[in-house]
Amino acid sequence: MSEELPQVLIVIDVQEGFITPHSQHVVTPLENLQYEFDHVIFTRFYNPEPSPFRKILGYDRMPPKSPETELALLPRDDAVVISRPLYSCVTETLLVRLKTWGVREVFIAGIATEACILKSVLDLFELNIRPWVLEDLCASDKGAEFHDPAIKLMGKLIGPQHIIKSTGPEASAGRV
Question: InterPro entries recorded for this chain (predicted)?
Fold first, then answer.
């Protein structure tokens, strides 16, 4: 009999600076959902000087240690928090943690669907780590016009079966 692998939730960038009327609906459900998983990782984006966000995009929000970079929810006591200055949360720190736990698939939720979530999901997929995107717990701080196409694109790139809801048939089948 094989041992069941731990279930891991990665919550991407649910930070004060990314909470808008378009994204605030994910905060409380994610704060509650984290307790349903064996492990949870929260990621935080920060934008140091210099960065491509500043130099190329002229985006100067989210400077290191600013109130904008603070998490907008309370992580559980054993949560891992990883900060990084990139779109992708797939850092060496994250990969070492997943390897230590023996993880080959993860559940992904958070903000922003069209940026950090999309890039992270594709990076995990290319490293042969199966991403399950919790569509209803992902959001764009810019609105559905960015969120919806990103979900559709991820379905095309990683398979539509990997885009699931946090409740419903997938949840009752033991996925979440």
Answer: Isochorismatase-like_dom, Isochorismatase-like_hydrls, Isochorismatase-like_sf
Residue 89 belongs to a domain with what CATH number? 3.40.50.850
Of the candidates 151, 107, 149, 144, the residue with the CA atom closest to the CA atom of residue 23: 144
Domain that holds residue 71: 8-172
Angle at 73 between CA 8 and CA 113, to 5 degrees: 65
Residues 152-170 have a mean pLDDT of 89
Task: Return d(Cα 137, Cα 117) in angstroms, integer.
Answer: 11
* 131 is a domain residue: yes
- The verdict on residue 2 lying in a domain is no
Is the Cβ–Cβ distance between 72 and 141 less than 8 Å? no
Which pTM was predicted?
Answer: 0.93
